[in-house]
Amino acid sequence: PEAKMIKYWIRSEEYQDKLEEYKTKISQETQKVDLEDLPLPATRAFIHPSSVLFSTNSVNLEDAKLLSEVDGPISRQSKIPTVVKYPFVLFTTSQVTNKLYLRDLTPTTTLSLLLFGGAISYDIGGTIHSPGIVVDNWLPIRTWCKNGVLIKELRTQLDEAIRKKLESPDYAKKSQIDNSDADKTLKIVEKIIASEQ
């Protein structure tokens, strides 16, 4: 397929609003809620032609299939277009004309999304087949739920480390020894992210 034909999906705000409304109804037990009436959780979006990642070059079908087989970035040395090397892209702005276009895109890895993206949830004791980790109530990441437990704990520690660093900006002084839990957490996350590149 052509690179411009790769399908991108973003979270549907209408879905999020309805989901919150249904959660309220369920908690109040005022009426029975049919989840089949929910709108689709995602909306299709396209890369804006002015974006650096927009390309009209063809992408080898086998290269595109790598995205579903690899849980991280594909080798940098590969001649595959950047947009195909990473399973997710982040965007800063969107624009609607005849289509929903995304601008200011940054490709990212699955682990980066899990560590820095929206809220994550998982169902360890579920009786039905679990989708794995669900990011932001709509994006399933297929993995074992035990990975979700570990990632959520690392994310909690990372959030706490960032909070501590922002509350005490004197951390940049070289005279301080970097032995705090926050420093250790940040170094671990830095190594993990660097290993994905």
UniProtKB/TrEMBL annotation:
InterPro entries: DEAD-box_helicase_OB_fold, RNA_hel_CTD
Record keywords, A-Z: ATP-binding, Helicase, Hydrolase, Nucleotide-binding
The keyword Metal-binding is annotated on this UniProt entry: no
Every RNA helicase C-terminal domain range: 133-173
UniProt KW Lyase keyword: no
A Pfam family it matches: OB_NTP_bind
Protein's name according to its UniProt entry: YLR419Wp-like protein
